[in-house]
Amino acid sequence: MKKNVLITGSSSGVGLESAILFAKHGYKVYATMRNLDKSNILKDRLSTEGLRIDILPLDVTDISSIQAAVQNILDKDGRLDILVNNAGAGFGKTTEQATEEEIRWVTDVNYHGVVFCTQAVLPHMRKQRSGQIINITSVGGLVGQPFNELYCGAKFAVEGYMEGLATYVSDAFNIKITNVEPGGISTAFMESAIAKTISEGQLATGEYQAIFEKYMAGNVARANEGEQQVYQTGEEVAGVILKVANTPNPPFRTRTSEWAENFCRLKTQADPDGLKLIQQIKDSFL
User: Fold this and answer.
1) Is the pLDDT at 191 greater than 90, yes or no?
2) Which among 30, 13, 18, 147 has a CA at the least distance from the CA of 88?
3) Is 231 an active-site residue?
4) Which residues of 18-56 are buried (b: 16+ CB within 10 A; e: fewer)?
């Protein structure tokens, strides 16, 4: 039976590339995005490559939108096999500089959206006694980074939420959970994050300015490191996501590049795939 997959944030970058790649490998794909007006790039790729997928509206900050998309899939297929929580947004500001609205926004998009999408699919995966939830987190979900503390905090929250959830839904209901942790991604996501950081009025000023300028210079240098650069393509990360979906017993967490692996090594070297810790938690509490 052909498995179906719901992918959030599919208008560009990793989400778009994942939708294309899953379709090529025989999955029934539901590509979702907040604004369907941004679906033209995906539609053009589908036409060029002779692929067909379903494109649905889904705003991860709107619970009714999430529920409607999930119900649409259930009405068509009667089941939902894989959720890829991909939608997210970069953000680079000092804590002092960020407004209340921005703090709530970066948390809603990167954390609350993951929780509410997961909440929407869990009852159906539980009833069918199978399912997979793949979350595109970040090395920033394991390692805090300068001027990204609010973004990292939201990604840390996803890691902790999924770590707790995985301890009891995996064995009881055969719902597999994996956090995919990229380093930098050279897509519209990165461009959006940089644009938001350097747009008028958003550069770090005062006593933070010298630190910020050093930070941005480092980003530019790393982006030009050739084959060893930090930034992967959306297609490369999509390949890791597909591999996880096709793995019978997938890891709880996995990095997507050698750079990401090295960057997180002090946090992950004792338990690179996270499965030992999950088992320890089960042994301690269940």
Assistant:
1) no
2) 13
3) no
4) bbbbbbeeebbbbbbbbeeeebeebeeebeeeebebbbb
Per the DSSP assignment, residues forming a β-bridge with 6 are 30, 83
> Catalytic pick from 27, 30, 151, 231?
151
- Assign 147 to helix, strand or coil: coil
What Cα–Cα distance (Å) separates residue 190 from each residue in 13, 90, 91, 106? 9, 7, 10, 15
> How far, CA to CA in Å, does 254 sit from each of 152, 204, 213?
17, 33, 31
CA distance 102 to 81: 34
- In the chain, the domains with their CATH numbers are 4-285 (3.40.50.720)
Mean pLDDT of 72-82: 98
Long-range contacts of the stretch 165-170 (C-beta < 8 A, 24+): 165/118, 166/252, 166/278, 167/278, 167/281, 167/282, 167/285, 167/286, 168/282, 168/286, 169/122, 169/126, 170/278
pLDDT digits (tens, 9 = 90+) for 92-119: 899 999 999 999 999 999 999 999 999 9
Edge-first strand order for the sheet with 4-7 is 54-57, 28-33, 4-7, 82-85, 131-136, 175-181, 253-255
d(CA 284, CA 39) in angstroms, rounded, equals 47
